[in-house]
User: Fold this.
Amino acid sequence: MKTDSLTSNSSIGLKGLDLAETEAWAQSQGLPAYRGRQIRRWIFTKGAHSFEQMTDLPKTLRQTLAKSVTLNHLETVDILKSRDGTKKFIFRLHDGLLIESVLIPERDHLTLCISSQVGCAIGCRFCLTGARGLKRNLSTAEIVDQVVQVRSTLPEPEHLKNIVLMGMGEPLANYHNVIKALGNLTREDGMNFSNRRVTLSTSGLVPEMEKLGQDITVNLAVSLNATDDKTRSFLMPINDRYPIAALIQACKAFPLPNRRMITFEYILIKGINDSLEDAQRLVKLLKGLRAKVNLIPFNPHPGVDFRPSPMERILQFQEVLTGDYLTAIIRKSKGPDIMAACGQLGGSSNRGIQ
Ligand code: SAH
Ligand code: SF4
Assistant:
């Protein structure tokens, strides 16, 4: 069993196991394999927080399991509410580190943005998470538990429809744990989210993008943010390793199920990447790809003196794209007043929350 399935005190973390591993674990406890599936239903579908709640398990068994198995991996430290209805959940991990997940109300459903790492090593110049460096990868259980815990706070859990891996961290830099978490989120024996409703966002780790396409079906979002290598390398140092041409090539090779598109995220930063020539180059770069573009006005935060592009420029930029039949949506980030917007996560550890 891999260490990511274990918590600090070496008890088993069931949310980090897949079905086969859960069944094997059940058998190792002298139980029939079907108990594994039964327990998964309790934790993933019914959101049980304790074995006590698993009323179809014999009482003595529940007591034994409670001693050797960890069900919860996150302690809720705070839930901040934005004026626009967005909520930021601050969770403490077993080693005291903090992570954040953001629940975003949409017109008729909820979207949850989850973290994959504590911090991030990629170091994008515009991103607060990146400015603090990488502390560690999240385990599979810690990734999945963000969804379980947030959903358990909802009066109507079925309203949570979309999961996006766009919180703290670079998901493809934590490949093994993220893939396993995606399995537990989307499989019928897990949380059963539709894979059409789960999106992984990457800064463009080309080899892992290739593997991802082979290993699992989820939606792909790529943080592009510039249209020439000089600007992209300035903004996102990962571009030195995987320049734009290699990234676009990997997107072209990415296996897309029918009618799905790759989302390209493009932060608009005043005077850096927001010229109309940039917009034209973007159209050219995405030619031949099933692509849509999310235009994100830069969210300011302390530590970088970039400014968002003015709305007038954002609209002009959008017009160039849509004029060439490219779908381009302006995504005003939610929750800026609680530092919950894109690129603003990871500040809790600095706000004296311990
Ligand atoms: N590491 C992954 C996923 C997390 S970042 C990635 O980079 O894709 C999620 C998104 O937030 C990315 O699209 C990134 O470009 C965007 N982002 C980061 N900092 C931002 C900021 N200050 N303003 C607006 N968007 C930002
Ligand atoms: Fe990491 Fe994504 Fe932030 Fe870049 S934008 S530093 S890859 S979290």
Observations:
- The longest strand covers residues 98-105.
- The two ends are 32 Å apart (CA to CA).
- Residues 120, 122-124, 127, 129-130, 169-170, 203, 223 surround iron/sulfur cluster (ligand 2) (CB under 6 Å).
